[in-house]
Task: structure prediction
Amino acid sequence: MSDMFYYDNRLSRRVLGYILLCSVILSLVSTTIQLYSDYNDSLERLEQRFNNIETSYIPSMATSLWDFNKSLMEQQIKGIADLPDISYVKVITDLGSSYEVGNEDTIVKELYRNYQINYGENEIGVLEVYANYEDIYQRLWQKAGVIIATETIKIFIVTFVIMLVAHWLVTRHIYRITDYAQQLATDNLDVSLTLDGRRKNKDELDILVDAINTMRLRIKQDIVKLEEAENALLSLNGELEVKVFDRTAKLQESNAQLQQSLDDLTLAKDQLVQSEKMASLGQLVAGVAHEVNTPLGICVTSITALKEKVDALKKAVDDQELTKSQLSDTLDLLTEYQQIIERSLNKSVELIRGFKSVAVEQHTDPEHKINLAQHVNDVVNTVKTMFKRKKYNIHIDLDKDFEFVTFPSAWNQILTNFLMNSHIHGFEGRDEGEISIKFSENNGYLTMLYQDNGHGIDAELKKTIFDPFVTTKRGQGGSGLGLNIVFNLVHSKLGGTITCPDVDSGCCFKVKVPVEFVEKAVFKESMA
Result:
């Protein structure tokens, strides 16, 4: 009992409320049905009472009226009025006199009966009997009060007993299970849940207790497994840290080796680039030397012939055999030799000047103002010495008065590589070819469009054309660094971009760089 009032019996109160509500509803319904049945019984008894009046009182009243026995008539009428539920009785004789008992104001017209009083075959009067519901209602209210009082007492007794039984059989065990669940922790999983006063035959509570104990054992097993997994994880972490340390050390060693290899490769690449530049310069030197030898040889031959003619003229003078015609012919011939020697020496001077311009700028990197037309022509004329036996038509489209600030050595290397690629790769196996070099300026950017009508570049090779060591002449003297050098010069030194657009035939390179101090950048003249 103390436990019942100690706990917060929300469930018990809820169950009690539902029981009370259901009991009250059932009691009201049963009481209403019972009262309605009693009401019908009362109406039936009233109707039976009317029938008894007709069979029991009418003959005696007829005798009393016939004998003019007034006192007996009054007693008979009063006897009818004293019957239950009868409120008013009246007798009217055929002589006009009347007898009445009761209150006429309480009559109910629906509960009315009219009886003829006959003595023999003679009609001697009329009996009027009126009833009302007051006695019926009073009896019903009294009975309803008794029923409600009885039902109320019964409901509370039954409810109290049900609450006690529910607490003893269910609620107190639920509180026990609740306390156990609240106190359950990892340090008391060995304590099982038990309920007091349980029978051998198991019910729902026993099944719930077994389920909780099973859950407790599973949690205990899971905790043991988790502890084992945690210990294994700690051991694995320790081993992993050792492996990570070892592999980190090996990785650092590998990185150091890779860095050394990268430095070696970078140095080797720089050396290869320098070798490529020197090889290009060597080719230029060989070509220019060969070209210079020709006019110089002509000069030597002309001077030798000139000396012979001078010696012959001197001998003729000494021998006094010189004639006017001989002197005139000799002077004409000397003038012709002088013109040949002058032309050859001028050509040699021009070749050496162009080569000197290209060769000196090839190894120095000062940024200064140049005339683009003169510079491009110097480079082209110098490079042409390396393929003088070829019949290449080189078209140069630019403004011969255009000047700007740039790195001349970069343009030297770019044009030289483009021309040599056309000669070695584009026109391989051919003696003729067309090369177009066009410069244009717009919005502070100088664009060079270089194009030839050679064999072109394969689509797959074009994807990596600017990568280092990419060449189709590997093993035949090709290093694969030419276009990579051009790419680096355009991007790093000139701060521009280079692309290889698709064309119908041959190959095309587009170089776009910013320019400074542009003057008269109108490109409308062509030079060849």
Summary: The CA atoms of residues 333 and 496 lie 57 Å apart. The first helix runs from residue 2 to 6. Confidence is low (pLDDT under 50) at residues 1-7, 360-364, 518-528.
